[in-house]
Design goal:
Strand order of the largest sheet of chain B: 8-1-10-9
Structural class of chain B: alpha+beta
Strand content of chain B: 5-15%
CATH architecture of chain A: Up-down Bundle
Low-confidence stretches of chain B: 1-17
Mean pLDDT of chain B: 87
Distance between the termini of chain A: 64 Å
Oligomer: heterodimer
Number of strands of chain B: 10
Number of helices of chain B: 9
Mean pLDDT of chain A: 93
Order of helices and strands of chain A: HHHHHHHHHHHHHHHH
Helix content of chain B: 25-40%
Number of helices of chain A: 16
Largest sheet of chain B: 4 strands, mixed
Largest sheet of chain A: none
CATH topology of one domain in chain B: Alpha-Beta Plaits
Chain lengths: 359, 322
């Protein structure tokens, strides 16, 4: 079988792009620029540690938690957007409301199994409900998840009743008679909490990368908004919706991505040397995935694309819209993945941990 | 040898009986046993200036607490093959070799010129901490590391199940039948002490300060076995006084680099119930100088989150209104 070959100049430029995307020099420059910390290997080697054994224990959290952070953010964001659209929107936003409530429950379903699987002793997961501890974000998160599940489930059922999925008898008729928005409103607060507490939870640890800047909660809140907006508009584009409804989501996406990039930059600046675990190119550092998939592909590119869309008043831009959604969703997943993995790297680094504890 | 119990088991109250309003809830859920009477706070004072690196504490701890051995491996880091505290190592002896490459000796002056040579620096000053004028500062530091039983323990503050409690002796204790192995305490601890036993119980484990022995009026196994009294056990306030006294003594003897860790420095907003006398900077022993207290981040992190949620919420409402 003969290999398909592109024209030589195209090949060359593709190779150049490929090389520059993975070039350690570029990643190092970006890391220094973003964190505001210039590595000084000689001086760092002179800092005392105990044989470079980690000061901290490595987190026990792996892929389950990464996916939970992603799905939890989606479930919360979809619910909040659906509720706001239902409260303030017009007729054409009905598709947004419908997609929001269904997708919220759909994204929520994998969350409890992921969290339970992550435990050392999954059969004891109910022990989480023994206490209500305001100062433990994980305890509050458990209660928040339970509360939100209730609202997300109820609203999906009410939506299904309105959509006639249960047929037409006294049961669905009773459900339709219930004050929908009034029931949905308290769930919004549970949703806002669920979408962002995970960042606060990571910030309330001793891991330098997660805790130093105290901004992970804000970052996760913006990412929950951008990814869930992307998911809803993805669904609307596939199943069809009025252009005006999509336009509202596009604008929300634009604002959310802008705020997300701002917080991400503030996060790296605030983390300083600890931020290198996320942005650097050293062993275990997440720079390549972070700069390419999160910042480049997940934020800058879709933000530029949606900027274009906002200024072009053409009707048909479904392709670009789909692309934006996919980029944002991929970026949102890799944001959580790189932050969790970089947290592992950060916890293993004795020098950074000891530096972080000097005040 | 059977040891007579000093604490009588608490009597279980008979029901029904009159209850104050706030305990009515606990009639249905939670404990039916009244908590044990509070005792004076107990802790460790680990004086590294006395440690000889015999590792008897490690062995005694493993034996008493029935902690399994780790796979033997030569680490190449001095005599330390334990590496760090873990779910199955609740005492860990560090060996720090402060041995510099031997410098060339100064050309020896004639004896009648010794005084002059000392004054113009040809003969170096006797380094601090060196008992005899060996003209070098080489030394071998040893320290038995252990859980710090912090006054404000981050693991205790993080625990979402209530498995980690403060006992009547003000020590931090993990109830093995409650812990579900969520791993939040593992990342909360700024000293890397508590760990999940991933090849055993799958729960978080760490030093209990030998709670079972304390209940019977005995000192913890490591303190009992320590041949030089480098590990001392007792009431925290008395031990702290003893630590200050020891520090004064060492300073008077010329060991100026001696310093206390966790006694008067208000680490984690309250100091440690298990503290140390060090012979170098904390970092040399992998101890964070002044670790941030994780729970203090909850308020600022929540504040910025709420600000963000408000901004995004307003924009969402704005976009959907028009």
């Amino acid at each position: 079988m003969q290999e398909t070959r592109l024209p030589a100049p195209v090949e060359a430029s593709l190779a150049a792009i490929r090389n520059s995307l993975t070039s350690p020099e570029l990643i190092e420059q970006l890391a220094t620029l973003a964190t505001g910390y210039t590595p000084e290997p000689e001086r760092e080697l002179e800092e005392p540690t105990y044989y470079d054994y980690p000061v901290l224990k490595e987190p026990t959290w792996h892929w389950e938690i990464i996916w939970y952070f992603f799905f939890g953010g989606l479930a919360a964001g979809c619910y909040v957007i659906a509720t706001v659209a239902s409260l303030f929107g017009s007729k054409e936003d009905r598709a947004t409301v419908r997609a929001g409530y269904y997708l919220s429950l759909l994204a929520l379903l994998p969350c409890p199994p992921l969290l339970i699987k992550d435990l050392g002793r999954p059969e004891r997961f109910l022990h989480m409900l023994r206490v209500f501890k305001v100062k433990s974000p994980m305890s509050m998160g458990t209660w928040g998840l339970v509360t939100f599940s209730l609202f997300s489930g109820v609203m999906a059922v009410l939506q299904a009743a309105h959509d006639g999925l249960f047929g037409d008898w006294w049961g669905p008729r009773f459900l339709k008679a219930l004050p929908r928005n009034l029931i949905a409103l308290p769930g919004t607060f549970a949703g806002l909490f669920l979408g962002s507490y995970t960042g606060v939870l990571l910030a309330a640890t001793s891991v330098p990368l997660w805790s130093r800047s105290k901004l992970l909660g804000a970052l996760f809140a913006t990412s929950a908004t951008s990814t869930s907006t992307a998911l809803i508009s993805l669904a609307l584009r596939i199943f069809g919706a009025p252009a005006s409804a999509l336009h509202k989501l596009e604008r929300l996406e634009w604002v959310a991505l802008l705020l997300e990039m701002t917080w991400l930059f503030r996060f790296l600046r605030g983390s300083n040397r600890a931020g290198r675990a996320l942005a650097g190119s050293g062993p275990g550092e997440q720079g390549p995935a972070f700069w390419n998939l999160v910042v480049g592909g997940g934020m800058l590119l879709p933000w530029l694309l949606s900027t274009l869309s906002l200024f072009q008043r053409t009707k048909t831009r479904n392709g670009r819209g789909l692309l934006v959604s996919l980029f944002v969703l991929t970026g949102g997943y890799f944001l959580r993945r790189t932050i969790v993995k970089a947290g592992h790297t950060s916890s293993r680094n004795a020098r950074v941990t000891l530096w972080n504890a000097k005040r | 040898m059977a040891v007579e119990s000093t604490n009588q088991p608490t009597a279980i109250p008979r029901y029904p009986q009159w209850q104050p309003a706030h305990t009515v809830v606990s009639t249905f859920v939670g404990s039916k046993v009244s908590p044990p009477a509070p005792q004076p706070a107990m802790g460790f004072f680990t004086d590294t200036s006395l440690c000889i690196g015999c590792k008897a504490c490690e062995v005694a701890c493993k034996q008493w607490n029935q902690l399994r051995a780790k796979d033997p491996a030569w680490t190449g880091t001095s005599y330390d093959n334990t590496e760090s505290l873990s779910a199955i190592a609740w005492r860990h002896v560090q060996f720090i070799e402060q041995i510099s490459p031997t410098p060339l000796p100064p050309p020896l002056p004639l004896f009648d010129r010794v005084a002059a040579a000392k004054s113009d620096g040809l003969i170096p000053e006797t380094p601090p901490g060196t008992a005899l004028p060996f003209f070098n500062s080489e030394r071998w530091l040893m320290r038995s590391d252990v859980c710090k039983h912090c006054a404000n323990a981050p693991c205790h503050e993080a625990c979402p199940t209530g498995a980690i409690i403060r006992t009547e002796y003000d020590t931090v204790y993990v109830q093995q039948d409650i812990c579900n192995g969520c791993g939040y305490c593992v990342v909360a601890c700024p000293f890397g002490v508590i760990a999940r036993d991933d090849y055993g119980t799958l729960t978080a484990r760490k030093c209990t300060l030998c709670y079972d022995r304390m209940k019977d009026g005995m000192e913890p196994a490591c303190a009992k076995v320590c041949p030089t009294d480098s590990i001392q056990y007792g009431e925290v306030e008395q031990l702290k006084a003893r630590a200050r006294e020891r520090l004064g003594f060492l300073h008077a003897q010329g060991v100026k680099e001696a310093q206390l860790y966790g006694v008067d420095d208000n680490i984690l907003d309250g100091g440690l119930n298990s503290f140390f006398l060090l012979l170098d900077e904390p970092e040399v022993y992998n101890l964070p100088a002044d670790p941030p207290r994780p729970v203090n981040n909850v308020a600022p992190a929540s504040f910025w989150t709420i600000v963000t949620a408000a901004i995004l919420g307003l924009f969402t409402i704005l976009f959907f209104r028009e």
